[in-house]
Write a structure and sequence with these properties.
- By secondary structure, the chain is mostly helical.
- About 75% of the residues lie in helices and about 0% in strands.
- The protein is built from 8 helices and no strands.
- It has helices at about 5-40, 45-85, 90-100, 105-120, 135-140, 140-150, 160-170, 185-200.
- The chain is elongated and about 70 Å long.
Length: about 210
């Protein structure tokens, strides 16, 4: 995708977010005005006021969920921009997203997640999601190397590698980590891709 296409996509997404936020704010205002009209100046019957306010608040809550989904989709677009190396597209937002990806907390969280997956596979623990246990056991050294890289705070890593790793451990639909029937080599290739994405500075000495 080109820089102009990313810019257009983000512009549309931001417009949607603003529209949802405005609608949610309007519904919240309606609920407040209705309650005031019923109990403050007695212009609306209390029963009707409760119904209107309840519907308005429920609608606002629904829009809040929509806003969160759209915000998550925007973060995915930011990550696609990071992967494409186009950090001049919406530079302030991309700089913020990059800082989040490279934060100490994010690196530790991902490292802990990798360790938990390996422990679950090796110790035959029950898992809430289907795991490629055979692949995790066979590729344990590679997975543990990635976790060690993330915990080595003195080592600079590239945010593109963090994006790839985040998607590996969260994308249940496409990640080979969550497809036990797939070939182990597919997971191995993705781990190699992530290690390369982290950058040469992220490689541990043998």
């Amino acid at each position: 995708m080109s820089p102009s296409e990313f810019t257009t996509l983000l512009t549309r997404m931001n417009d949607r977010l603003r529209s949802v936020a405005t609608a949610a704010s309007s519904l919240a205002t309606l609920a407040v005005v209705t309650i005031i009209g019923a109990y403050g100046v007695n212009l609306i019957q209390p029963g009707l006021a409760k119904t209107i306010a309840t519907m308005a608040l429920a609608g606002g809550a629904g829009l809040g969920l929509v806003w969160r989904v759209l915000a998550w989709q925007r973060e995915e677009i930011y990550d696609d921009i990071v992967l494409a190396g186009l950090r001049h597209v919406h530079p302030q937002e991309i700089a913020r997203r990059t800082a989040e990806l490279l934060s100490r907390g994010r690196r530790r969280q991902l490292a802990d997640t990798l360790d938990r997956f390996v422990e679950t596979a090796v110790e035959c623990r029950q898992s809430a999601v289907p795991l490629h246990r055979d692949g995790l056991i066979e590729l344990q050294p590679q997975v543990e190397e990635l976790a060690a890289i993330l915990r080595a705070e003195e080592r600079a890593v590239d945010p593109a590698g963090i994006v790839l790793l985040r998607r590996l451990v969260t994308d249940g639909a496409r990640s080979p980590l969550f497809h036990p029937g797939s070939e182990t080599q597919r997971l191995a290739r993705e781990l190699d891709r992530i290690r390369d994405g982290l950058g040469d500075d992220g490689r541990l000495a043998a």
